[in-house]
Amino acid sequence: MTEEIELSELDRKIVRLLQGEFPLVAEPYKALAAEIGITEEQLLARIAAMREEKKIRKMGAVLRHREVGFTANCLCVWNVPDERVDEVARRMAEHPRVSHCYDRNREADWKYNLYTMIHGYSREECENIAAELTIATGIDDRRMLYTKREWKKTSMKYFTEE
């Protein structure tokens, strides 16, 4: 069972703030802090505390990969022996062109249990990356499902109802 964590109103404001656009200015945290009426130091201290308290896990950029030239991406699904999933997933997740790596349940008509998102400048490059992952792990039973059209790409938004 997941432990429920309480967030103060200030913490909720900070989470809402951090999931928006990051200001492209010399002092972005100062600009963000001003939006909610606190100092830059207070904002940075609360972010550090929330990380320490496991209220937030990470902060990161969302790359719109097509806009920077990554025109090919695929969901590559792998049939990995159950006893090797952790080891293989760690190895695959280390690759710089793998953005996501998930362990999923198998289904009666679907034998694949490890999913990776591979990004490249071409389909050929994606195929080469999958081949590198095969060499690194010894897993070669895979299917590559290429994106035809992107309908939505956003990060989760929390506390938006307020």
Automatic annotation (TrEMBL):
Siroheme decarboxylase AsnC-like ligand binding domain boundaries: 68-152
Pfam families noted in UniProt: AsnC_trans_reg2 (PF17805), NirdL-like_HTH (PF22451)
GO terms, molecular function: lyase activity
Keyword Magnesium: no
Record domain Siroheme decarboxylase NirL-like HTH: where: 11-57
Reactions catalysed according to its record: siroheme + 2 H(+) = 12,18-didecarboxysiroheme + 2 CO2
Enzyme Commission code: 4.1.1.111
Manganese keyword on record: no
InterPro entries attached to this UniProt entry: AsnC_trans_reg2 (IPR040523), HTH-Siroheme_Decarb (IPR050684), NirdL-like_HTH (IPR053953), Tscrpt_reg_AsnC-like (IPR019888)
The protein, known as: siroheme decarboxylase
Organism: Selenomonas infelix ATCC 43532
Lineage start: Bacteria, Bacillati, Bacillota, Negativicutes, Selenomonadales
